[in-house]
Amino acid sequence: MPNLNIQDSINQKLYKSLIRPILFQIPPDLIHDIAISTGNILSSSAISRAALRFLYNYENTKLQTTEFNIQFKNPIGLAGGFDKNCSLIRLMPQIGFGFTEVGSITYHPYPGNPKPWNTRLVKDQALIVNYGLKNEGALVLKERIKAQKRFCPLIINIAKTNNPEIKGEESINDYLASFKELQDLADIININISCPNSGDGFLFCENPELLERLLKKLSLLEPKKPIVLKLKPDISDDNLYKITSISKKHPFIKGFVLTNLTSKRNRLKTQNITKTKQ
Q1: Span of 133-137, 205-209, 216-220, 265-269 with lowest mean pLDDT
Q2: Over the range 148-162, which residues count as b (16 or more CB within 10 Å of their CB) and which as e?
Q3: CATH topology of domain 4-257
C-alpha cells in the first residue's frame, strides 16, 4: 500500500497544476462521456481493476458502517446522475467508493435535452446540469446491470420517464414498471420524486396526494428492498411535512436522499449565464 499522505499531495498538485487546466479546455459534456468510456474500459479487466485498487483503494475497519442491514466498507459513494447508463458498477469500488448509485433510470429511454447538458460555473466551483433524465431505459439497463460483477452495494435510482404525455396515474404506473424490472438487482431503491426534468414539469414531491397513491400501489408489490425517496432542496415546509407523514405509513420507506438540484441561482458569483452550443 503506497504512503497515502505523499500520494495525496502528489495527486492534488498534479491535478491543480496540470490535469484541471487541460480538462477545463474541453466541453464538460465531452469530459463526462470520456470519463464514462474510460472507466468502462478500465473496469472490464481484472488486471486493470487490480491496478486501480492498488493505486486508489483504501480500507480501514473504522470506516465500515451498516445501514438497512447492508454493510458498507466506508460511507462515501457515488450519487445518482453520473453513471446514468450503468457502465461503472465494477469501477467505483476499485477507486475507493463504499457504494455506487446508477441512474436515474426511467422505464422508457430518453435521449436527453438539447445540449449543452452541463455548464461550468468556474467561479462558483459548480455545474448547471440539464440532461433531462437521459438514459437508455429500464429494459436495456436491467441487462447491463445483470452483466456486471458487483463489488459493493448498489443503489438503483428510478424516475418518471421524461414525456409530457405521461402524467397523473400514468406517472405512477411508469414508476411501478421500472420498479418491477429493477428491484431484484438493487440493494437499495432510490425513488426520485424530485427531478425537474420530468417532461410535464410535474414533481411528485410537490403533490403529496399523488405520492401517497404511488406508495399505496407500491405497497401492493410487497417491496423486498429498502426504499428511499429523493427530495428537492426548494421544497416548502408544508410539503415536506406531508411527505414525511405519508412516508411513515409505509415501513418499506427507510429514509430520504437530500437533495436534488436547486433552481435558485441568486447567490452565484457567475453572472450572465447563457447556454452555448457545443
Answers
A1: 205-209
A2: beebbbbbbbbbbbb
A3: TIM Barrel (3.20.20)
| Residue 244: its H or E element | helix 237-248
For residue 98, give every residue at least 6 positions away whose Cβ sits within 8 Å of its Cβ, in sequence order, or none. Answer: 63, 65, 72, 73, 74, 75, 76, 77, 152, 153
Name the grid cell of 272: 450572465
pTM of the model: 0.87
**CB of 100 within 8 A of CB of 154?**
yes
Closest CA to 263 of 234, 229, 237: 234
Q: With CA atoms as reference, report the closest residue to 36 among 162, 131, 126, 125.
A: 131
* Domain boundary assignment for the chain: 4-257
What one-character DSSP code corresponds to residue 135?
Answer: B
Question: What's the CA gap between 81 and 159, in Å, rounded?
Answer: 11
SS3 159: coil
Sequence-separated (6 or more) residues with CB below 8 Å from residue 108: 137, 161, 163, 174
